[in-house]
Amino acid sequence: MIGSGAVLRGLRATPRAVLRGLRGLRVRLAAACLLVAMFAALTTAALTYREARGAMLQRAQDSTVHSVRDRVQTVARLTPFPPDQAALERIAALVDPRTRTDHWAVAVGFRDLWATTNRDFGPSEIPTELRDTVATRTATAFQRVHRNGRVLLAVGVPIAFSGPGRTTASGVEVYVMTPMQTQVQEEAALVRAARNGAIPAVLAALVLALIVAGGVLRPVRALQRATRRLARGRLDTRLQVKGGDELAELAQDFNHTAAALEEHDARLRRLEARARAFAADVSHELRTPLAAMTAVTDVLDEDAAAEQLNPDTAAALRLISSETGKLTRLVDDLMEISRFDARAAALHVDELDMAEAVRRCLAARGWRDAVATRLPEGIRAEVDPRRLDVVVANLVGNALRHGAPPVEVALAAERRDDGDWVVLTVADRGPGLAAETLDRVFERFFKADAARTRSSGSGLGMAITLENVRLHDGLIRAANRPDGGAEFTVELPRHARVGAEGREDG
Amino acid sequence: MRVRRMRTRMVTERGNGIVRLRPPFLAAVLLAVGAGCGIPATGAIEAGQPADGIIPPADANHPSGVYVYMVDAHRVVPELRTSSGGDSPQAAIDLLLAGPTREESLVGVSTAIPAGVGPARVTVVERGTLRVEMAGASPLGETALEQVICTAATAGSRNLPGGGSGVVSVITPVQRAENRACPTSLVGSSGGSGSALPPRQPGSGPETAEEVAPGRLPPVVPTAR
């Protein structure tokens, strides 16, 4: 029932179900794992990248600064003071290494004089901040700048005087600007490396996250399955308790609950079985004395019939005789019911002509004239002849006793999706059944009319009928005809099912 | 049924919790990733001492200075000396031939020039090339030659108009090294031919020291002393 409900809901609200699936524990767990992994991978990649970039830039800058300063120092020894324009140009020319790998633009300044190696490179191209630092701090300095989409390294080297006690600035400043082409390429390679490292790591993390989430959720799903099994009545359902986490505790709690339920259920079943056994025993014990009483009353009945007794005694005897007969029927019915309860009732099927079987049943009880029949020939079915007789006799007897004539018995064959069926209908023209009694009419000792407590039936007839029909895997229902009167419908499968005897009690 | 409803409620509550948590978390990740790819610009960063090497002009308190190339741990290095005789190449070579000072000797600075070499005469020949003629029978090793050439070239470049050519010829009675440049200075080396230098002619580049066979000794120019 739960299952079909869920299916119905799923069919009706598919987008919502999908949304719920996306918000499911597995997805959320996987997402959480993935986020953590992404955070770790990306942070690691980013930090590694930054470190590597920093080291790479520092190495390149140190190398360039060192190289510039070295060359400036060497050239400074060759330089007269104060230098004239020609001397500045000589410095610029000598500082520029002019190799294929290094493209240095060199500018040398001394007071207002400037010399450059490159015509379109002048003092205005040098970053102001760098010039300020070199001039005020008298220290070698460098600065990275972006010009026209290129990254340039600008190095400024002031030249100090050499000589004892003469470390003041000479006023000659050398600036070198060089594109950081190699470093830009290396940086791109670093980004590539970081990405090539991080993306597979994140993908691997996704797979791992799904696996881990599946692993974590396995006990949850097992719990869900077990709960549904338990809800279907499988009280022996138990979970395997693994580990000592909260889910394991939950599984243990589930097992305790299931065990308690099972024990409770077993105790109830035991009590019920004992009660049934008691009823069976009682009826069995009553049979022997009843048999003796019946024999005696039969003899006395004959005496009464022969008018050998005085009238009062004869009346009392007839009362005793009829009550003894009822008691015998009651005990017989009780024993029959007990056999059903004990599942000792066996089905002995035989292929019968249904119309013939019904006619024989009515004839045996002398009801041929009291009952209108509509029995088409040729409807054959695999049924237990004795039990069919009990069903027909109970229903017709019930109709004759409580309903009004004409009582009709009809037979029909129906072909349905789930097989071929024989439909037997017993209807009367009486007042019908009250609405609230319709579904209680098959209960044991149920009397439709509370005032009519002393009917001739045992009160078990309809219950026995129900059990017999059920034994055939058939259906029985009571209804009121639209034009008045009660109608009982019995549906029996035309082909007995294999193993019908061991049918479970639903 | 009750179980299912409970589970659903749990999901929504917890789900909202995660949804609330997500934006800052993602933002942090994206910030960490997006923060600065590429090479950022910087301000001016100091990177150590200035260069030095320019000798201030002599005045009343300070005598002239010259660089004399000495040997320190097998390397030819410039040593700054004060010179009472000016800063001409001649004065520099004279100081070189005088050997290391006491202070230099104490710290392990020496000379590779044999004791018997000298005195020398430095002249300027065509296109700013210096010619160092030295007396003495001991041949100069490669290191000693480098000392002479570098000392003369460095002094010459500060003294000669336009800095000279940086090329030096060293002539001794037993040896002749023509048109040599100082390998540690940038002048006259392959990369150092700037506009201030005269264009070098093919075949007139630096040559290796050529040991002159005694039988083919070039005529030694007697120097007037």
Automatic annotation (TrEMBL), chain A:
Residues 214-266 form the HAMP domain. One of its GO terms (molecular function) is phosphorelay sensor kinase activity. It holds the Pfam family HAMP. It is an enzyme of class 2 (transferase). The chain crosses the membrane at residues 29-49, 198-217. One of its GO terms (biological process) is osmosensory signaling via phosphorelay pathway. Its main location: membrane. Its EC number is 2.7.13.3. It is found in: Cell membrane. Keywords: Kinase, Membrane, Phosphoprotein, Transferase, Transmembrane, Transmembrane helix, Two-component regulatory system. It catalyses: ATP + protein L-histidine = ADP + protein N-phospho-L-histidine. It comes from the Bacteria. GO terms for cellular component: plasma membrane. Residues 281-496 form the Histidine kinase domain. The keyword Aminoacyl-tRNA synthetase does not apply. This is Sensor-like histidine kinase SenX3. It comes from Embleya hyalina. The lineage of its organism: Bacteria, Bacillati, Actinomycetota, Actinomycetes, Kitasatosporales.
UniProtKB/TrEMBL annotation, chain B:
Pfam families: Germane. Residues 183-225 are annotated as: Disordered. Residues 216-225 have a biased composition (Pro residues). InterPro entries: GerMN (IPR019606). Residues 68-155 form the GerMN domain. This is GerMN domain-containing protein. It comes from Embleya hyalina.
